[in-house]
Amino acid sequence: MSKYQQSYRRMLVDMHIPDWDPAFLSRYDPAALAQHFTRANLTGAMLYCKSHAGLCYWPTEVGKMHTGIGGRDVVAALLTELRSRDIAACAYYSIVFDNWAVETHPDWRQRTINGADFNSIVRYGVCCMNHPEYRAYEMAQLDDLLSHYEFDALFLDMIFWPLICACDHCRERFRKEADADIPATVDWTSPQWCRFQAARERWASEFTRDLMAKAKSIRPHLGVTHNLAPALANWVLAQPLSASIHDTFVAGDLYGDRIEQLVVSKMLLHLSETRPAEFMTSVSVDLSDHVRLKDEERMRAQAMAATAMSSAFLFIDAIDPIGTVNPDKYARVGRVFAAAARYEPFLGGDPIEDVAVYFSGHSQMDFAENGTPVAGVLTSGRKYPHLDAVRGACRALQRAHIPFGVITRRQLDALHRLRAIVLPNVLRMDREEIEAFRAYVKAGGSLYASRYTSLVEECGARHRDFMLADVFGASCDSEEQGAFVYLTPADDALAKWIAAQRHVSCKIAKDPIRPVLPLCGMPRLRSGSGRALATLTLPYGYPSRGSVNDHQWASIHSSPPWDEVTVATIVTNEFGSGRAIYSAASIEAIDSEAETALFVGLIGSLLDRRFSHGAVAHPSVWMTVFDQRDHHRVMASFLNYQEELPPVPVPIRFWLRPPAGRRFQRLLLAPDSALMEFALGDDGTLHADLGAIELMAMVIAEYQ
């Protein structure tokens, strides 16, 4: 493992600066920047080698060197400065985004299906991964860079498709592989469209693989990674999560809220070949805002969230066009990292998780997009039904302090190790996934699934019934068409969980006038082997939305429950040696008291309310536990990550079950290793009280 991979406190200074003004970067000073890095308490730093502008910061023999640095080899200079300060060095190198290449070789650029490239309206020039000359250029430039400098790691940025490229090379490759033209319309139930999307993802993964192989052929011991953040966006960028298999460690830059950091940090733990993974975010409130800083409390909370997950954390700054930086930023980062550094000796291990939330790379889409012209798809975002359900599931489990993680198809071979799995509105699945989850439940596993999970295959085939209908104990009969329906408990436990509500409301229609699109509402079930935990209640006049003229409504503002029908909406089913709960509504996606309590209650019932650890604490507290077998101990961290900062101190009482065959002996409070009082239950469970904590607390439970 390289020195950079072992570091936890990292920073990157963006240098996406053009050179058409001779003043640009004229005052760039590697020694001064390295001194700022020292003030920031860094153990690792990324240094720019090639930016999105396509300009290089070393005397390259391929491409163009930035003229503003006056012929200086600032890569070598900064590398020397970092070595003298014992700061590990990672080379930053931009792929696809390369303005110099696009302007010098216009035929290398990505083009939409109607031939546009958007160079006249955006700042980013993007190259096509399928152009052979462009591929050769990147390989030659990597060869030139890595042959001259010895870095600890290499970070390749932007290996994805900003456009749905339909240039001649993409058309030719798809025609050769699929014997078909690039489809003109988005349709997730069309095999041709799904083949094209799968091809885009495969092309990005193969290019990533080839770039990594090139780097390794020059520097075999180099740690290599690429920016995996685009893989969490919707399908447009077509960067597959599976491309993480090419990385030595995974890394990604994210700029969302604390729930995004929670979901991503949990996922990175299972995607990374080696740990720690790297979570990256900006020191500014927004990547597009050069001067407005996040407040210090926000920066500290984000950095400590990574520490709580035993992950590395990287702050991103941006250099001034002249080549200077704001030194006060680095003093602030230094204070943040000084606090995090105290916990580093206690990090690492394997996360202890009872529940695994499944994130599906096939489901980063929305069936509402069906029929959209490809020429009209111009932007990407991080919003789609499956992600809403993933975020909601993680949010609910975290608030309840239920031990959970986030897995992907990379863990399909290890499902037997998990006590319960959540399939949150998984819109598309392939046969391998279906068989893996069926076998998991049959062998004794516990499964929760919601909404359209297993109805549509990844290849575009829409089935008449759930592919996991035998596991769910219920079948898909049709789809609801009205604006609202209700889930009514048919089980006393569910009634208690949602009290003081008597029903759970499910909004079906996004548009108050237009009909519900196929696969965008909620399935209506047909009875099977399962037992109903909740049934369907319809509003007056259903499925009519109601109008002034038709009188098909009972209240002018809302659509209250009216007609109780004997149709199940939540079903529990024994399958093989295991058990499944299926919900026709993705209740986990709804941020509301009753729905959250219902979801948490269902998950708890799957595990017989027996968890590996837990806490009595405010819902804002993140509890994360790692088994560090090499040190014969369990590390538990508690992060008081409130929405409004600084956080109000909150009291925490917690308990830990020892790993199988172990017995707890001592409890220490990190980072000072002060002895703590604790009690052991008859089953060996450790109980302790932390008192009130402000932001972060960590305990070490040593076992025999």
pLDDT average, as an integer?
A: 96
Count of individual helical segments: 15
Q: Low-confidence spans: pLDDT under 50, at least 5 residues?
A: none
Q: For the terminal residues, how far apart are their CA atoms?
A: 29 Å
Beta-strand portion reads: 15-25%
Radius of gyration: 27 Å
- Counting helices, strands and paired strands, the structural category is alpha/beta
- Which strands sit side by side, in order, in the main sheet? 13-12-14-15-22-21-20-17-18
Number of strands: 31
What's the shape?
globular
Fraction of helical residues:
25-40%
- Note the main sheet: 9 strands, mixed
Draw up the topology in text.
Elements: H1 3-6, E1 9-14, H2 30-39, E2 44-50, E3 55-56, E4 64-65, H3 74-84, E5 88-94, H4 99-104, H5 132-148, E6 153-157, H6 168-178, H7 191-218, E7 223-226, E8 251-253, H8 258-271, E9 278-282, H9 296-308, E10 312-318, H10 327-341, E11 350-351, E12 355-358, H11 385-399, E13 404-407, E14 420-423, H12 431-442, E15 446-450, H13 469-472, E16 474-479, E17 484-489, H14 492-498, E18 504-507, E19 523-527, E20 531-539, E21 561-575, E22 578-583, H15 593-606, E23 613-616, E24 621-628, E25 633-640, E26 650-656, E27 664-670, E28 674-675, E29 679-680, E30 686-693, E31 696-703
Parallel strand pairs: 1-2, 1-10, 2-5, 3-4, 5-6, 6-7, 8-9, 9-10, 12-13, 12-14, 14-15, 15-22
Antiparallel strand pairs: 11-24, 16-19, 17-18, 17-20, 20-21, 21-22, 23-26, 24-25, 25-31, 26-30, 27-28, 27-31, 29-30
Helix pairs in contact: 2-3, 2-10, 5-7, 8-11, 9-10, 11-15, 14-15
